[in-house]
Amino acid sequence: MDNMTGWNVSASSTNNSDSIYADDSELDTKLFGRIIAAIMIMFIPFILGGNLIVLIAVMSFVKLQTVTNYFVVSLAFADLLVGAGTIPLYAVFHLQTGNVVENKTACLIRYALVVESCGASLLNLLFISIDRFIAVIYPLRYYSLVTPKRAKVSILILWIYITFVSLLPTMGWNLWNDDSVCDFYEIFPKAYVVISSFLLISVCICLATLMYVRIFLEAKRQHKKMVIETAHRSTSIKRRLERDLSSAKAMATVLLMFVIFWLPYLASAPFRFSPYMSNDLINVIKDFALCLSMSNSMINPMIYALLRKDFRAAFKQVLQLKLTQLRTASKNGNKSDNSNSGVSLKNTPNSEMNLTKMTNSIPVPSVIGVNHICEVDNCSDSGRESTLAVL
Description:
Largest sheet: none
Low-confidence stretches: 3-27, 341-391
Number of strands: 0
Number of helices: 13
CATH superfamily of the largest domain: Rhodopsin 7-helix transmembrane proteins
Radius of gyration: 26 Å
CATH topology of the largest domain: Rhopdopsin 7-helix transmembrane proteins
Shape: globular
Mean pLDDT: 77
Number of domains: 2
């Protein structure tokens, strides 16, 4: 989807000044490639850390194990693929390590990872919008239409489909030859470019946008109805409507941020046909736009933390629990060292009291109860023990 390796300097060698200019251009190109690689690599810990916390939170809290969040987990896996596979391979291409720039297999795998991670993200966002659409528009039929089994089958089909599409070029559907430059628009047939990028992106974004518009129009209508029928409408129904709308707002924000972060990259694609821009300038624009696109993979956990109270509480408790475990491990290590030096803390009252106090003051996630996230004052000892066993 980009032309990041097509930085071949074409300078005439008819005189010394031209040769020097070519050398300087090549040096600038390598420097720019290192800058882009460094920026991308800086994203990796944030992408991996944030999305791993999402996975841990959903697996640890029964309240978060909903059908909607099955797709959130699948979306997190797509973002993890960006951080663990796509960005490292792109960084290698930017650094022009060895002959990777001219390697057909490396080039095809590079674009396969982009198509799979980007396509999986889009399809997950589409399925999430469908889930929220049914929850708000057809609430009475939601639990009969949207079941955990159907959600899991949908996710499986989603990944099989996008994996197949991403691997098609490696099966022979490509235009690679000995003189090829690793450019998405040059090594792939136009039909594949349309199917894997423009068609997939436009269809998913348009359908999801239409559903969210319908959701918010329905929410507005129901809100007016609730104001009129406040005395007659049950509190549980109000809560359900508010919860569904809040979830829809959060996931619509995820979709909006995806569009915002990827739009500059998609808008830069026609630049390659412009007669007024040099190839180097086009590559600079596209590479910075691609950096922005890649950074989208670290945004979703932040959105969940800001807009969803259930995820915010879960993230807080998971992080506090992990910090407590690290501190406890550190204290145990210090005890072992002191024991070896002839000093024992085993029977020191103050150390036992401090450790107990620290453990009891940390809010711990509970896996007991479908709709309960354990708070500090409400957590039983058995709840803490169960949670520690799970995590």
